[in-house]
Write a structure and sequence with these properties.
Length: about 180
């Protein structure tokens, strides 16, 4: 029941964002749209920004859940772009609000987590210090998130398939090459 209520509150926020900016949406707007009382909202979330955190945390994890390997990392990036396009109003409103930091934090966390999984997979059988694996994942995270934020700032007009194709061309095999450079001998 609790997850159902949270999802309903999230859906109401997204629906309201179609008609007005985040800065103009109140908890009362959300609860009235969702047909619950304010107490129900506050039982689940501290404020609207907490709801936004929850949306990003739950939805982005689902988006890339099955794409955390070297063979599927591009599919994970594709899924994130598709998520952004399917939630364009939500993403753009978040990006142009006080929640921008939340969007950036979740992009960084989500991207890092799936990249460190890829790096760890590629490092199997190699003797590479964890700090170097983390460095590689962070390096690529900054590139991926930077490209995503630039795309969002451009109102998501560029075709994400072109971005993903360029990324794939640029870094194919580079995870392994970077690990080899850091491998202890």
């Amino acid at each position: 029941m609790s997850q159902t209520t949270k999802r309903a509150l999230a859906a109401s926020l997204k629906k309201l964002l179609i008609h007005k900016p985040l800065s103009k949406i109140t908890i009362t707007d959300i609860t009235e749209d969702c047909e619950v009382n304010r107490h129900t909202f506050y039982y689940h979330f501290q404020d609207i920004y907490d709801l936004i955190d929850w949306i990003y945390e739950t939805e982005m994890e689902k988006v890339i859940a099955d794409n955390k390997t070297y063979e599927t990392w591009a599919d994970g990036v594709q899924a994130l772009f598709e998520y952004a396009l399917n939630n364009k109003t939500f993403i753009l409103n978040t990006y142009h609000s006080l929640s921008r930091k939340d969007l950036m934090r979740f992009l960084n966390q989500t991207t890092y987590q799936f990249l460190i999984d890829v790096v760890n997979e590629q490092a199997q059988g190699m003797k590479v210090d964890q700090k170097h694996k983390e460095f590689i994942a962070n390096f690529y995270k900054h590139a991926f998130v930077g490209l995503a934020l630039e795309w969002i700032e451009g109102n998501m007009k560029l075709d994400p398939n072109d971005i993903i194709q360029d990324l794939t061309t640029l870094i194919e095999g580079d995870f392994h090459k970077a690990l080899l450079r850091f491998e202890e001998r």
